Amino acid sequence: MSDPGPSGRFGRFGGRYVPESLITACEELEEAFRDAWDDPAFRAALSQTLELYAGRPTPVTPALRLSADLGVTLLLKREDLTHTGSHKINNVLGQALLARRMGKTRLLAETGAGQHGVATATAGALLGLGVTVFMGERDMERQQLNVFRMRLLGAEVVGVSSGSRTLKDACSEALRHWVAAADDAHYCIGSVMGPHPYPWMVREFQRVVGEEARGQCASLLPRAVPDVVVACVGGGSNAAGTFAGFVDTPARLVGVEPAGGAAVAGGEPGVLHGFHSYVLQDEDGQIQEAHSISAGLDYPGVGPEHAHLADTGRATYVSVTDDEAVAAVARLARTEGILPALESAHALAWVLKAAGTPDLPAGSTVLVTLSGRGDKDADQLARLI
Ligand SMILES: *Cc1c(COP(=O)(O)O)cnc(C)c1O
Question: Which parts of the sequence belong to the Tryptophan synthase beta chain-like PALP domain (predicted)?
């Protein structure tokens, strides 16, 4: 998981499939990011913001009662404890500081569940940047609290009425808007997707999750590195950040997709939103809708580096159903007093299924990244549990 170079390729995946008018904006962004990432002053400013504002480092919590039930040692990387309640803030603060360094005055963002929109609205308020968030109208109905939060934070929320009126359509609309606004606006993408340099840049901003966890595991586990490292995969940013901390260890890396949006397991290579990766599509190459209970995983593609990690076999991708994820929320809440986001519950649900099987034999040590907290899902869960 290194620098993909100017082509932005991870094996056969990635690249930069955008209209001519956005090539320059992507090139400028790549240059600015390379420059910033090599600059100790930028790194220090980001670290300080993550620490003093976002609440890093987040702990790794041993899940003691659940471990005893399952016969494995389960550790949880607690991104739910960050400011705004998910790992999204790590990437957003990085991109917002970069946008300011580039002289941009506005941030554009797409959002599905609203978590990335809330994080971007938060960073905009912190740094005095204007924020416009594109959100599918269907998601606006499903996630009214986050729409209200974004507006309260001073962001403009633009409803998108095309297509399925969800995340995929919000991404398309944000890209379209960026074409006209690139002079003063930075497009703050919320996952390891989009044209180069985004998949690489977002992974680098999320790397802090894996690097912290690596050090924390070393002091908690007799053999320093867990046997298995697990994270949920929508676009794949919390998983990419987590995996980056362990890719050079013997740990098995497992990405968990929702059964209704399993782009690695069920997709075909194709181009979506400016990058080449596994994408859910029909026989004619038309993009198919993803159908997941968790809006944050409801995306028909997957970040190109995950497609490559799957191809090379370095990481394994599995899927769990909506019901399994809901059951995992309740199980963690009752055994550990932690209410995870429905997205994060997918990672946990795989552990619940695999514990004691050859996939995760008794006595194994396993780290799960808890990408976010579950408060946002309370309404939805109330109708299900
Ligand atoms: C957005 C989100 C995800 C999915 O995004 P990735 O880029 O795959 O990490 C997962 N968990 C939470 C809590 C989210 O908000």
Answer: 54-372
Task: Indicate if ligand 1 lies below 6 Å from the C-beta of 343.
Answer: yes
Task: Give the CA count within 13 Å in the CB-facing half-sphere of 84.
Answer: 27
Residues in CB range of 177: below 8 A, 6 or more apart: 108, 132, 134, 185
Q: Is residue 61 part of a domain?
A: yes
Look at the pTM and tell me if it is higher than 0.85. Answer: yes
Closest Cα to atom 15 of ligand 1: 115
Q: Is the CB of 303 under 6 A from ligand 1?
A: no
Query: Is 4 among the domain residues?
Result: no
Summarize pLDDT for 79-137 with one digit per residue, the tens: 999 999 999 999 999 999 999 999 999 999 999 989 999 999 999 999 999 999 999 99
Q: What is the DSSP string of 310-369?
A: HHHTSEEEEEE-HHHHHHHHHHHHHHHS--B-HHHHHHHHHHHHHBTSTTB-TT-EEEEE
**Domain identity same for 81 and 94:** no
If asked whether residues 294 and 304 sit together in one domain, one would say: yes
Host domain of residue 122: 9-48+88-198
Q: List the structure tokens of 360.
A: 């995760």
